[in-house]
Amino acid sequence: MKTEVKPPENIVLIGFMGSGKSTLGRELQHMLGYELIDMDQEIERQQGRKIKEIFSESGEATFREMETTLLRELMAHGAEKRIISTGGGVVKSEANRVLLKQMGYVVWLRAPERIILERTSRNRDRPLLDQDDPLQMIRELLAEREPLYAGASHLQVDTGGLDVHELASGILECARYFFSNPQSHA
Ligand code: S3P
Q1: What are the b/e assignments for 87-107, b being 16+ CB within 10 Å?
Q2: Element (H, E) at 13
Q3: What is the residue with the minimal CA distance to atom 11 of ligand 1?
Q4: Angstrom distance (rounded) from CA 104 to CA 111
């Protein structure tokens, strides 16, 4: 008899800084009771330093390697059901884009530029935007990354019009359909 290997049923949130991944991740965790892995927080915990320090002391390339290592560790856990909230630059690496899709249902959260600017200017924790003209940087990075988010995701969600509970409910419906329908994994 053929043994079916079940693909992992994680819900993976991707999207630009300030697109609402952490807030939505917490809402999904609340609704589903799944473990929530916030990749930035997990890397900070493993490293014992803040992302800002990792960037300034070790450089962005090293941080990207840490992201890939963490994705591989999460994959090694097999078919657990978790919510994984990623850092906005995780899609820069092709290896990561492939891993993300193998991990489960990948949801790309989108927010308008002005919301991203407003949310990210509340603190200076994001080294890539800690500069004189963050809006210009947001525009450049969005132009570079939007095609990557598109290619790495199964679902694209505009976060502007709905509250977080409505968004999470809609995403859950889509995820249930995806996981119940093996053809959709192609
Ligand atoms: C980054 C996004 C950040 C964090 C790091 C780099 C990026 O995560 O991983 O500052 O390159 O877009 P958030 O998207 O959670 O802010």
Answers
A1: bbbbbbbeebbebbbebbbbb
A2: strand 10-15
A3: 89
A4: 22
Report the alpha-carbon distance of residue 119 to residue 155 in Å, rounded: 23
User: CA 126, CA 21: separation in Å to the nearest integer?
Assistant: 15
With a CB cutoff of 8 Å and minimum separation 6, the contacts of 43 are 51, 54, 63, 66, 67, 70, 87
Best mutation site among 83, 122, 128 for ligand 1, i.e. most ligand atoms within 8 A of its Cβ? 128
Q: Model-level pTM?
A: 0.94
Nearest residue (by CA) to ligand 1, atom 3, is 87
Interval 40-71: pLDDT, tens: 999 999 999 999 999 999 999 999 999 999 99
CA distance linking residue 51 with residue 1, whole number of Å = 49
Q: How far is the centre of ligand 1, averaged over its atoms, from the C-alpha of 72 (Å)?
A: 19
Break the chain down into helix, strand, coil percent, rounded to 5: 60, 15, 25
Amino acid at 168: A
